[in-house]
Amino acid sequence: MGAQVSKQVERIKSVTTEKKALCELQRSRGCDFPGCDYHCPDRKNWMAGLNPEKLTIDQIVWPGTHDSATNKIGIPCISRPFAQCQSLSIYRQLVKGTRVLDVRVQEDRRVCHGILKTYSVDVVIKDVKRFLSETQSEIIILEIRTEFGQQDPPDFDKFLVDELGDYLIHQDDRVFRKTVAELLPKRIICVWKPRKSPEPKAGSPLWSAGYLKDNWVDTDLPSTKFESNLTHLSKQPPSSSRKFFYRVENTVTPQADNPVLCVKPVTGRIHGYARLFITQCFPRDCADRLQIFSTDFIDDDFVDVCAGLTHARVEGKA
């Protein structure tokens, strides 16, 4: 018992030390980067505001959400705090400026996070369609995967094509160099990641798992995650030369051996350091590799950070 208590005390000390490390880094280095003073005049249409005729897919810093469809997961005040990573609906996230969605499903087509279930994926599809019907030049990356330990929904690829067919941008390596305007009126890059079912093939309306990569570091230590993200990002090719999307997650996650298990206070340890992360990408020579940048509980400033760096790239300032 004493050893367990001692371990918990050490874990709390580690968290405190790492929080102070990020705070000190921000205090000493600041948060100045090309586009840092940019504020979206209209987050619902922020891509349209950056000139779709000039904006290429590989220039975009895509603001994404982690476990996007968890706003109503579990039982309020009981199981929800342990699994909820977003408080907004899919539609409200898109209106706020989110452009990459991370949706996990199980065999009955219900969205889930681990063992906890929420609404049907039809709710996600409905929200996406609603947003697209209200905008003209916003491109979305919709990643849907079968959750770990779950079975693939039967004929799910056919379901996605039937539901989203008119909007789907087909799997094609040339997409990365195209402008937003060249892709319109198609609006969705849908990455389908089954566990056992066949993956989408070249030329398919859906994109296979290899087109969206990341290096997930499962930790609740904010400085450890921050530095690991920079290290993994620095090993990627520049976004202008690669033919896949690479995601960095500005998140930390609860761990079973730590006394704090609710998502919001844990992920809050790193949430406010998105600007610092982009700032640190420049002296470490990996700013040209940043592409998808995701977070829990997305807010306006996170979107402005991504749109600002995108704007600087379009203007040739980054």
From TrEMBL:
Q: Name one GO biological process term.
A: lipid metabolic process
Pfam families to which the protein is assigned, alphabetical: PI-PLC-X
Recorded GO molecular functions are:
phosphoric diester hydrolase activity
Q: Which residues cross the membrane?
A: none
Query: Which part of the chain is the Phosphatidylinositol-specific phospholipase C X domain?
Result: 51-193
- Which SUPFAM superfamilies does this UniProt record tie to the protein? PLC-like phosphodiesterases
Q: What is this protein called?
A: Phosphatidylinositol-specific phospholipase C X domain-containing protein
Instruction: Tell me which species this is from.
Output: Nepenthes gracilis (Slender pitcher plant)
